[in-house]
Design a protein that fits this description.
It is built from 17 helices and 16 strands. It is of the alpha/beta class and about 500 residues long. Bound molecules: 3-methyl-2-oxobutanoic acid and zinc ion (ZN).
Length: about 500
């Protein structure tokens, strides 16, 4: 059986970024884009350039930096959107414009207030204009799942004539089920004139937990591009998860007549990076990238695996990157070994001072922790390191007192805009006391939406990684902090979130 190439279109930096609080800075997007390139993603949807200047600059920077993946910018069908996307992707070695408009009756009538003819005209005009910037133009019929089939055929025929090279069929609201989705894809490919000249793509949301199943069904029906995100991040319940799609197709090569070019050993490192940057933890039982994905708990299973791995394992943990991530640096490692590991991880320190400071913290951590992993390194390099000018609040030192029968007390020294201030507060617990102490000086008035602690690696000497999600005036930001002391990690995470609320570089969610 001939094996076709299945294009992996990663939209972590666009649809993934639409998760609440997951909005990323330009530097964060660049770091993820570098790792996606290393993982050999075919197309990186880097953002929505007309959503904000920040997103325009992020897409442009990614287009400049990435050489091995196609860089895509999203655009509605308006002239300004398409031109903005065209300008943003201009520096790319290979650039794509992805233009979309809704085609379902409910979206056309209630949201766009446009007739089907007007929608078709807008789509044709957008595709023609996009072709002035690049030969690689994708058209999406938003809410295709609830669109009239004949209308979909008509609009797809027209945009293919206008020059679209990829036709994307989205299940925007996660409504479909696998049989129906595959059937829709198959009929579209059969019916639309010019279907053989384009790549058919599927883009599924996970509202019913079926995004991956629907995507695979579309692939069986002939789709040769899947749009997906790392860890299944995305609007509401998320998008189809890249790692699950890639590994389903690879593991069941006997069944699928296509494969991807993804370097699967990069999957776990990229998953961890995305989780660390967005503050979205990966659930332990998540397929492929969850901490328990390869852990065998029952005695019968353990016994089987010890006798013959394949009794209970259909994939090898090392094939998806579970063991490639171990850092061979230790307490005695030098600065240049540390620097070259950062480079391998796609982290570029902006100045020698920032590198020295990070190296100092690495040494400090190595004194407290026997083994250091890449996850520890990612946690060491907060975005303050990459953008030192944007650190308004910094933890200088802390002291906690917690005793049975007493209210816990936190006493902190903070650097606020370069000046040291001493604060203290009591609270329901040491974390509560810490946040109250910080608020006594920051007075942000922000709402705490989420507080979560995760162990970065295993063992009681592991660093705890804390995520704090704050909301203020319609903005939602995630702050992260890591330390072997989780109260210190909590203080760092809270301060990191406050710095993001302060920073003008932190972009609002493009959908807001
Ligand atoms: O879900 C959706 O319809 C989208 C489009 C922009 C492709 O994200
Ligand atoms: Zn989407």
């Amino acid at each position: 059986m001939a094996t076709d190439h299945l294009i992996i279109f990663d939209t972590t930096l666009r649809d993934g970024e639409q998760s609440p609080g997951a909005s990323m800075t330009r530097e964060e997007k660049l770091r993820i884009a570098r790792q996606l390139e290393k993982m050999r993603v075919d197309v990186i949807e880097a953002g929505f350039p007309s959503a904000s200047n920040g997103d325009f600059e992020a897409v442009k920077a990614i287009a400049q930096a990435i050489k091995e993946s196609t860089i895509c910018g999203l655009a509605r069908t308006s002239e300004t959107d398409v031109r903005r996307a065209g300008e943003a992707i201009k520096p790319a070695r290979s650039g794509r414009i992805h233009t979309f408009i809704a085609t379902s009756p409910i979206h056309m009538e209630k949201k766009l207030r446009m007739t089907p003819d007007q929608v078709t005209e807008a789509a044709i005009a957008a595709v023609k204009l996009a072709r002035e910037y690049t030969d690689d133009v994708e058209f999406s019929a938003e809410d295709a799942v609830r669109s009239d089939f004949d209308f979909l055929c008509r609009i797809f025929e027209e945009v293919i004539k206008a020059g679209a090279t990829t036709i994307n069929v989205p299940d925007t609201v996660g409504y479909s089920i696998p049989e129906l989705w595959g059937e829709r894809m198959r009929r579209l490919i059969e019916r639309v004139p010019g279907a053989d000249k384009v790549v058919w793509s599927t883009h599924c949301h996970n509202d019913l937990g079926l995004a991956v199943a629907n995507s695979l069904s579309a692939v069986i029906a002939g789709a040769r591009q899947v749009e997906c995100t790392m860890n299944g991040l995305g609007e509401r319940a998320g998008n189809a998860s890249l790692e699950e799609v890639v590994m389903a197709i690879r593991t069941r090569r006997d069944f699928f007549s296509c494969d991807t070019r993804i370097d699967a050993t990069q999957i776990v490192p990229v998953s961890k990076l995305v989780s660390q940057i967005t503050g979205y933890p990966v659930q332990p039982n998540k397929a492929v990238v969850g901490a328990n994905a390869f852990a065998h708990e029952s005695g019968i299973h353990q016994d089987g695996v010890l006798k013959h791995r394949e009794t209970y394992e259909i994939m090898r943990a090392e094939d998806v990157g579970w063991t490639t991530n171990r850092l061979t640096l230790g307490k005695l490692s030098g600065r240049s070994a540390f620097k070259s590991r950062l480079t391998e991880l796609g982290i570029e320190m902006p100045t020698e001072e920032a590198l020295n400071a990070a190296f100092g913290r690495f040494k400090d951590l190595a004194d407290r922790k026997r083994e250091i992993f890449d996850e520890d390194i990612f946690a060491l390099i907060g975005d303050e390191e990459l953008m030192p000018d944007h650190e308004h609040y910094r933890l200088v030192s802390s002291l906690y007192h917690s005793e049975t029968g007493e209210l816990p007390l936190a006493r902190l020294t903070l650097a606020v805009g370069g000046t040291e201030q001493h604060v203290e507060a009591v609270g329901g617990g040491p974390v509560d006391a810490t946040f109250k102490a910080i608020e006594s000086v920051a007075k942000s008035g922000a709402n705490l939406l989420l507080y979560s602690v995760n162990s970065i690696t295993t063992g009681t000497d592991a660093q705890g990684e804390v995520t704090v999600r704050l909301a203020k005036d319609g903005r939602i930001v995630n702050g992260q902090g890591a330390d072997t002391d989780i109260i210190v990690a909590s203080a760092k995470a809270y301060l990191n979130a406050l710095n993001k609320l302060q920073s003008t570089l932190e972009r609002v969610n493009p959908q807001v």
